[in-house]
Amino acid sequence: MWFSFFIYSVLTALLPGPNNILALNSSMKLGYQKSKTLLFGIYSGFTVVMLLTAFFTEFLLNSYGFFLNYLKYVGAGYLIYLAWSVISGKPSEIDFKQDEPLSSSAGNFWKGFLLQLVNIKIIIYGITAFSSFIFPQFKQLWVILIFAFILSFIGNSATWIWAVAGEKLHKFLNRHYKVVNIIMGILLLYCAVSLFL
């Protein structure tokens, strides 16, 4: 079960999404050092969203406990959808020259922070992790908070990897996208099946 949790959280975090693309874009245009304020905003917002999804999912399951069985199917469906979209996906072509450079440090922070509040990818990431892997095993508040920070750490680490790797990661994924997509898709399918084992 925990192996599946680890695969799910790491692979989902590493998949291209708003955070990873924004971090990649910013570090390629401005460099990693000048992108730190934006990245700190992303990290802070991500952590807040993980805490909110933990409490939302706990409330939902405590008030409507029967949802846990249904959420397992929703989580599995989401993982199958992710696997299919990864396997059938093509490399993204991003024009890193079009956007104007990000302006003020405060603007960069809030741009990264506020993106998290509307980032469906990480909201579903958190709800699926809590409802499918964590709440079936644990109920204590302190354990749930630890997992919120673990999920935040994994997600933010993936964004950091995209920011640091910059153009090299983008080129590597584009060059080897078929093999990478198939491996990641199969691992996500394994995570979906493991929810019922």
Quick gist of this model?
The protein is an all-alpha fold. The protein has one domain.
Radius of gyration, whole Å: 17 Å
Which class of secondary structure composition applies to the elements? mainly alpha
In percent terms, what proportion of residues is strand? under 5%
Overall number of structural domains: 1
The whole-number mean of residue pLDDT values reads 80
> Biggest β-sheet, characterized?
none
| Strands, total number | 0
| Unreliable segments of 5+ consecutive residues | 93-102
Helix count, DSSP H or I runs of 4 or more residues: 8
Ends distance: 8 Å
| Secondary-structure element pattern, one letter each | HHHHHHHH
GO molecular function: amino acid transmembrane transporter activity
Pfam family, one: LysE
InterPro entries: LeuE-type (IPR001123)
Subcellular location: Cell membrane
What do you see in this structure?
It is found in: Cell membrane. The protein is built from eight helices and no strands. The chain has helices at residues 2-14, 18-30, 36-63, 67-87, 105-117, 120-134, 141-175, 177-194. It is globular and about 50 Å long. It starts with a helix and ends with a helix. The relative contact order is 0.23.
